[in-house]
Design goal:
Layout lengths: L3 E7 L7 H11 L5 E5 L21 H12 L2 E5 L9 H10 L12 E7 L7 H13 L3 E10 L2 H4 L9 H17 L6
Parallel strand pairs: 1-2, 1-3, 3-4, 4-5
Amino acid sequence: MMSTTILTLVGSLREGSINRQLAEAAAAHAPETVDVVTFDALNDVPFYNEDIDNDADRPQAADALRAAAADADAVLLVSPEYNGSMPAVLKNAIDWLSRPYGDSALASKPAAVIGSAFGQYGGVWAHDEARRALGVAGATVLEDAKLSIGSSITRFAELHPKDDAEVSGLVTGVLMALAGAATPVAA
């Protein structure tokens, strides 16, 4: 049976962030045929600038991000909500992955957005924006595969998301939906 690789991009750069922990939960509870790979160098990817998006000037971190997306069968964004919107680091990653125009690293890849935020709605606005940006960038957004966990600071004050049975089950459901929609990348 072929394995499905899901590239995970975390919108919080803080090492101990709850959204990073949510990505860890995804990796811990991935179905046997799913490999969750987190790209941990988003903080090294400069803001998108078309002037440097060429073979001579493109930063290595941007090439690494595109290569990770090209090697993946699907994409999972794990996002907090900053000031009612998605974090700039995720928008920047989507911008880099959307190029070159017509040959996006996200083209037709199944994508989903999950995350957690302090507020009661769990980052719904940020997640909606991220889904819209992914769709414009060429991804096939799974509108029904989503998870927004509110009151994260309280809910996960003493419990890692991977140890929360309800959250683990919901995250596994999103991963299964992505795997079911993915066509494995030829090796």
